[in-house]
Amino acid sequence: MRIRVNAPMPSPISFGTVKEILRSVGLTPELAEGRLAQAVRLYYPLDRQLAERVRAEAISLTDGAIASEQIRYFQTRRVRRNHVMVTEHISSVSGSVDLEIGSCDSIDAPSREFLSIASRIAGWNVTYSSASIPAAEEAVHHGEGCLKEALRDESMADELAEAAWEFINVGDAWTGTALGRRLLARERSARVWSLLAIGHAMLRETEKAEFYYDEWARRGDSMDKVRALYGKSMLYARHHPDGLRDTDMAAACLDHAYGIIGNLSELERAHDDVVFEEVFNRNGFALVLFRRGHVDEALDLLKDGITRLSATTERVAIHRSVLIYNLAQCHKQLGDIEAAIRTFDQLLDVDPYMAEYHLEAAKCLSAAGDHARSVEECEIAVALDDTLAISWRMLGLAHLSCGRLDAAVHAYSRAVGLEPENTTGRADAAYAFIRAHRCEDALAVLEPVEIESLSPAEIDRHFSLSAEAHLRRDRVQNAVEQLTIGMRMNSSSQVLALNLEKVAARR
Asked: 1.25.40, 1.20.58, 1.10.1660, 1.10.10: which CATH number matches 143-220?
C-alpha cells in the first residue's frame, strides 16, 4: 500500500500527522473494534462514542477509568503499545506499506515516535519531503471542532479544561500540557496546576512537575494541598531521576498531607473522597516503609487501607486493586510466596484484564516451582496485550523452565521484534537459541547490539553468549576472539577471564 500525506501545520493538539495517516487508510474511530479501538482512542480522546465503546469492552480498570476517576497515568508504555498495535494492524491488512510524508518539518514530536515504530517494528518504508506533496486536504478530526473553538474563545475555559483532562487520561500528555498552558493564560487555578503537574510527570519532566505541584498546594484548598503533596511525594519516591530521589523528602510530604487530613472535622474526614485520599496517603507511606526495610509495617498499613476502602462506596475498584497489588509485593519481599500468590489471585478477581498483574503472578508461581501455571498466566498476559515485549520475554522464560525450547524461542523472538533496542532482551533470546541448538540464530540476534553502550555486566553476558554459540559449532578460535574483545572492554571481568582460560585450553 502507498500512503501520501502532508504533515499538518503545528498545533497544540498532538498526533496530527498520525491522524492524517489513519484517515488515508480508512482507519477511523467508527471502524476500529475491540483492542484496536482501545489503541486508536489515544489519537481521538474526544470522540465520545469511541470512548463508550472502549469502556464497554473487557478492559482493565485503568484503561476503563474515566478522567475524573483515574489514579494511574501511564505514558511511554501505553503510547508505545498503541503505536505498535495500530501500525502492525495496518501492515497485516495492507501488506507492505510505503509512506511518503510532505511538509515533514511540521511533523509533531509524538507523531515522530509513531513513525519510528512504524519503520523499526512494523517494517514500513517511510520517506520524507520538506515540500508539500499532492495529497488529500487536512481534515478536522473527530471531536476536535469544539476544542478548536475553545482555543479561540476565552469564555470556554471549562470546555478547554475538560478536553485537556481527556487527553491526559488516554496518555497524550503532550496535548494535555499544551492545552494546560493555554488555559493558564486565562486562569490560575487548582485545576490548571494539577493538570500541568500530572502532565509533566507523565512526560518525565519531573522538575517542571514539582514546580506545578508546589503551585497547586500553595493556591488550592486543604484537599488540593493533600493531593499535591501526595503527587510531589511520588516524584521523590519514584519518578525523579536518581540524583533527585529522596525517600525522606517523600515521607515528609506524606506526613505533612496526613497532618492536614488530621486537622479536618470528623464530618469532613468521614466523606468518601477524604477517606480515599487518607488511604492513598498511607499507601504512599507504605512505599516509604518498604524502601526503608520495614515491610511488616507496610503490610499492616495496606491491610488497613483495603479494609477502610471496603467500608466506603468505592466508586471504582481501581482504588482497591492498587492496594492489593502493593500488598502482594510486600508478601513477596518477605519471602512468603504462597501469601503473595493468594493475594495476586485476589487481585485478579478484582481486575482480570491488566496484563501486568498476570505477569507478576507468574513470577511468584515460577518462584514456587509451579512452572505450568506460570506459563498459563504469561499466556493470558500475551492474549490481553500482545504488544508488551516483557510479556513475551516472561513467556519465553516460563517455557524454558518447562523445557519447551521451540516455544521459548518463538516467544523471545517476538519480544526482540517488539523491542529491538533492548539489549537484555537480545541476550535472553540468544540464550534460548543456544539452548535450542540454533547457534547461528543466537549470533544473528546478538549482532545488532551496540557493544559500546553496554554496562560491564552486559558486556560479560554478551561476549560469553557469543563465545558459547561459536564453541558449540567447534569454532574455538572465534570464541577466543569474542572473549578477548570482551576483556578489552571490561578488563576487570572475572567471568570473562575464567571463560577465556577454559576456552583457550581447548585449542
From this structure: 1.25.40
Digit-coded pLDDT (tens) for 152-206: 999 999 999 999 999 999 999 999 999 999 999 999 999 999 999 999 999 999 9
CA atoms of 95 and 441, how far apart (whole Å) = 26
Residue 293: is it exposed, middle or buried by C-beta count within 10 angstroms (0-12/13-18/19+)?
exposed
Tally of residues, the chain: 507
C-alpha cell at 202: 507523565
Rounded to 10 deg, the angle between the 318-333 and 355-367 helix axes is 20
Q: pTM of this prediction?
A: 0.88
Exposure of 247 by Cβ count < 10 A (0-12 exposed, 13-18 middle, 19+ buried)? middle
Question: Degrees (nearest 5) of the Cα angle 461, 463, 468?
Answer: 95
Instruction: Quick: pLDDT tens for 372-408.
Output: 999 999 999 999 999 999 999 999 999 999 999 999 9
> Where are the domain boundaries for CATH 1.25.40 in the chain?
143-220
In terms of phi and psi (left: phi > 0; alpha: psi -120 to 50; beta: otherwise), the region of 134 is beta
d(CA 440, CA 259): 63
Distance CA 46, CA 41 (A): 8
- SS3 of residue 250 by DSSP: helix
